[in-house]
Amino acid sequence: MFPIGDDNEHSGIAFVTIALIVLNVVAFLHEINRPEQAVQAFIFAWGVVPREYAAATDLPPLIPLPYWSTILTSMFLHGGWGHLGGNMLFLWIFGDNVEDRMGHGRFVFFYLICGFAAAMAQTLMSPNSLVPMVGASGAIAGVMGAYLVLYPHSRILMLFPFPPIMFELPAVLFLVMWFLVQFLNGINQLPVFEKNAISGGVAFWAHVVGFVMGLLLVVVLKRPERTKVEWWDTIQP
């Protein structure tokens, strides 16, 4: 079961959302356009490796930039077509409307800050991990948190693939359920559970913190004059 759309109208072209999707696809194609072993080395080099941040130094394979620049580069890398496709679907569904309420410039800032907070949270939860973290999930989780604040009465169009059934679900219900799944899985990944100690897999704490950051930051960055879609066509005196 996954979302395929929502029932919100938006006022203009979501330039930033479209640009982010294009950048993610281009970066992924650049990533996979190399032999398999080289792809793994590329991800280790440009993904967020928590041990590098704990040691405050770059670890092999080295990059020609400071180690902390991987916070940005990791947001545009993905672990496979499914990882990329799922993230871009969520970004397309939720991103255009959030961008509409913030404006292009504020949305760029918002997206990057949510991604930064998400990456740092996951790093703090697993400071000794050598497993690279890649993906736009943390930043997109922030977008989803903002969507919950901005469009609490929206409905999400869902698709259940087997058998194919389409139905609508309140956005609040979908987003709260999604957050709870991430939070509970994050609890299960805490080091106190020795057999489930964080060593890799899904970065659930990045999702949790990205979502919470989105909830908080949207209150500051939303533009009140864009509360109604009519703002775009309103002639200013």
Distance between the termini: 47 Å
Counting copies of identical and different chains, the oligomeric state is single chain
Poorly predicted parts? 229-237
CATH top level class name: Mainly Alpha
Domain module tally: 1
CA-based shape:
globular
Describe the structure.
The chain has 237 residues and is mostly helical. It has one domain (2-225): Rhomboid-like fold, CATH 1.20.1540.10. Helices cover 56% and strands 7% of the residues. It contains nine helices and three strands, in the order βαααααααββαα. Helix 5 runs parallel beside helix 7 and helix 6 (104-125) runs antiparallel to helix 9. The longest helix has 22 residues, at 81-102.
Name the descriptors:
237 residues, mainly alpha, Rhomboid-like fold, three-stranded antiparallel sheet, 9 helices, 3 strands, 56% helix, 7% strand, disordered C terminus
Chain-wise SSE layout:
Layout: E1 2-6, H1 15-32, H2 36-46, H3 50-55, H4 70-73, H5 81-102, H6 104-125, H7 137-150, E2 155-160, E3 165-170, H8 171-188, H9 204-221
Antiparallel strand pairs: 1-2, 2-3
Helix pairs in contact: 1-5, 5-6, 5-7, 6-7, 6-9, 7-9, 8-9
